[in-house]
Fold 4-diphosphocytidyl-2-C-methyl-D-erythritol kinase.
Amino acid sequence: MPGIPDMSPSEFDPSALVRVPAPAKINLFLHIVGRRPDGYHLLQTAFRMLDWGDEISLRRRDDGAILRTTDVPGVPVEADLVVRAARALQAATGSIFGAEIGVDKRIPMGGGLGGGSSDAASVLIGLNRLWGCGLSRARLQEIGLTLGADVPFFIFGETAFAEGVGEDLQAMSVPPAWYLMVAPDASVPTAEIFSAKELTRDSEILIMRAFAMHTTRNDMQATVCRKFPKVAEALVWLSHYGAARMSGSGACIFAPFDSKEKAEQVAAVAPQGWKVWVAEGLDRHPLQSWVV
Ligand SMILES: C[C@@](CO)(OP(=O)(O)O)[C@H](O)COP(=O)(O)OP(=O)(O)OC[C@H]1O[C@@H](n2ccc(N)nc2=O)[C@H](O)[C@@H]1O
Ligand SMILES: Nc1ncnc2c1ncn2[C@@H]1O[C@H](COP(=O)(O)OP(=O)(O)O)[C@@H](O)[C@H]1O
């Protein structure tokens, strides 16, 4: 991921192009424990960022316009979470500034790696700084939640145990790990999985003490595997080498390893043509120090 530009007041040129990282996340586990009256599902999950993801470029404008400078295939400008994040910050603060926003996309869409949410979080954090809004972390998390359930986590910025729809966050610590990631050739529509009849919605509520793969699971995995055989195939393959699991609503899967070398050895024997890569778990968001 790119280095973080110096944004101390003495160094800061407000018209400069600023590049900021937007890391991917994985859900180490995901239990569905109930449902809200509005139909949204109540979760218990653990979020961890990866040292791998998208890159956002931001340039402040004085005329208030919000412009997207790169094309994201399949995502119209007004639907793009980066544009919606900038508009939400304008609405919350009354800022007169605008922005040019570019997205260098690497995180597969509909992959369960939170790409759109992370892009939105990095825009909120970045523009809060570039526009001099001075909003607190808690306020940015509130605005983020209006854009998507995973956005508050990225603003929180640390490995977290999450409840509610993912907005009730507590920092947790997990051992260092390198993850072998597989992106099956499938894009999973989150809404379709949450609305599946057979989905487990009554997992026992955990009191989180320490995270372990073998006492947890992803309650969406069985439904996704049934509907998307390529996800099932990837899970079967990766299970031969490690504790393989799906992230979020899929389609991407991961397995943790205690060294980069071990993860790379497995990546080297992946079937030809599969999209696999190795990423390190990240304990803190690279923009953590930009918010108070
Ligand atoms: C499953 C998770 C786990 O981290 O992430 P992803 O796999 O998408 O990254 C999240 O809870 C994804 O939350 P969010 O980002 O809000 O999901 P969206 O794609 O906006 O939700 C699409 C639809 O799924 C349903 N939905 C979503 C979240 C939730 N807790 N309960 C639901 O029932 C709602 O019908 C919603 O309209
Ligand atoms: N900047 C963005 N990047 C990715 N997806 C976006 C973006 N803005 C809006 N979206 C929409 O959000 C959906 C979910 O994308 P994403 O967050 O990448 O996956 P997931 O929710 O599975 O982790 C996409 O299918 C797309 O329609």
